[in-house]
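Duplicate of #3305? Posting structure anyway:
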C-alpha cells in the first residue's frame, strides 16, 4: 500500500509540473493568462489554478496579477506603433468614426496616443471650432491636414508607442480641463476595466480622464479579456465604450452596472 501511494503521489507531481509548463507556454504566446483560463483549459479547480499561478510567480518566470499571471517582460512585448497601426486598420477607422459622433463640434477634447485613438482624431480633425489636446506624436504630425486647433502636451517620446509621457506632459495636464477625453487601452478586463503596458502612459491616461466631463474608451475587441500589466481606469471612470464586437452577456451586465454606454459597430 505504501508503494502504491508513493507512485500515485509521484504521478500527481508529474501532472502538476506538466500543467505548469503548459501554462508557461501559453504565457509566452499571449503575455497574460487568467485563472479562469487555467481552470477551463486544464479542468482544474480555482484553488488549483491559484496554487499553479503562485508557484510559477515564485519561480520568477511570471508576475502574479489579480486574476492571473503576466509575462515578466510584458511591458517589452508591446508591439511597436508601426505594427499596431496596420492591424485591423479598417475596423479601427470605423471605430474612430463611431467615437467621433460622441464628441462636440465646438470645445476642448483630449485624444491620447494609440492607433485607434488616432482614427478618432482623423474623424474630428476638420472641425474648425474644436481644440484637440494630445500626447500623440503621430496626431501632431497630421495636425496640418485639418481645421481643428491641435495642442501638444510636451514630454518625453516613448518610442514604442510614439506617446509623449513624463513630468512635462503631466505638468500641462494639471492646468487643463476638457469637454471630453478619448483614450485607448492595451488590454481590457471584464471586471477591472482598462489597462496598459507602461506606467508613464497609464499616468497620462488617468490624469486626462480626471479632467474631462465626458470620458470615452475606444478599443478593438481583440483587447477584451486580455488585461495588460497596469490598470489605469475602472469601468466607473468611463461614460462610453466604443468597440466592434459585443462582450459576453456577463460582460455587458458589468458595463451596465457601472453606467457605461456600449457602442458597437454595425455589420457591413
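Output from current build:
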Amino acid at each position: 500500500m505504501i508503494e502504491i501511494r508513493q507512485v500515485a503521489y509521484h504521478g500527481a507531481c508529474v501532472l502538476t509540473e506538466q500543467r505548469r509548463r503548459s501554462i508557461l507556454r501559453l504565457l509566452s504566446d499571449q503575455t497574460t493568462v487568467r485563472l479562469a483560463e487555467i481552470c477551463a483549459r486544464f479542468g482544474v479547480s480555482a484553488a488549483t489554478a491559484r496554487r499553479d499561478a503562485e508557484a510559477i510567480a515564485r519561480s520568477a518566470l511570471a508576475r502574479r496579477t489579480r486574476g492571473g499571471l503576466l509575462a515578466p517582460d510584458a511591458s517589452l512585448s508591446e508591439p511597436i506603433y508601426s505594427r499596431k497601426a496596420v492591424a485591423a486598420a479598417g475596423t479601427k477607422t470605423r471605430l474612430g468614426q463611431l467615437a467621433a459622433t460622441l464628441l462636440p463640434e465646438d470645445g476642448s477634447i483630449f485624444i491620447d496616443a494609440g492607433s485607434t485613438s488616432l482614427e478618432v482624431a482623423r474623424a474630428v480633425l476638420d472641425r474648425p471650432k474644436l481644440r484637440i489636446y494630445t500626447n500623440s506624436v503621430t496626431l501632431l504630425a497630421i495636425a496640418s491636414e485639418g481645421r481643428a486647433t491641435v495642442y501638444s502636451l510636451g514630454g518625453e517620446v516613448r518610442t514604442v508607442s510614439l506617446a509623449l509621457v513624463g513630468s512635462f506632459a503631466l505638468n500641462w495636464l494639471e492646468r487643463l480641463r476638457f469637454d471630453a477625453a478619448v483614450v485607448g487601452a492595451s488590454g481590457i478586463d471584464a471586471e477591472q476595466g482598462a489597462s496598459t503596458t507602461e506606467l508613464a502612459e497609464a499616468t497620462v491616461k488617468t490624469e486626462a480622464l480626471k479632467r474631462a466631463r465626458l470620458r470615452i474608451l475606444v478599443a478593438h475587441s481583440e483587447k477584451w479579456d486580455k488585461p495588460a500589466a497596469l490598470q489605469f481606469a475602472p469601468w466607473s471612470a468611463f461614460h462610453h465604450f466604443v468597440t466592434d464586437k459585443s462582450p459576453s452577456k456577463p460582460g455587458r451586465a458589468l458595463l451596465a452596472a457601472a453606467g457605461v454606454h456600449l457602442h458597437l459597430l454595425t455589420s457591413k
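Confirmed duplicate; merging threads. Residues 1-11, 80-87 have pLDDT under 50 and may be disordered. The radius of gyration is 21 Å.
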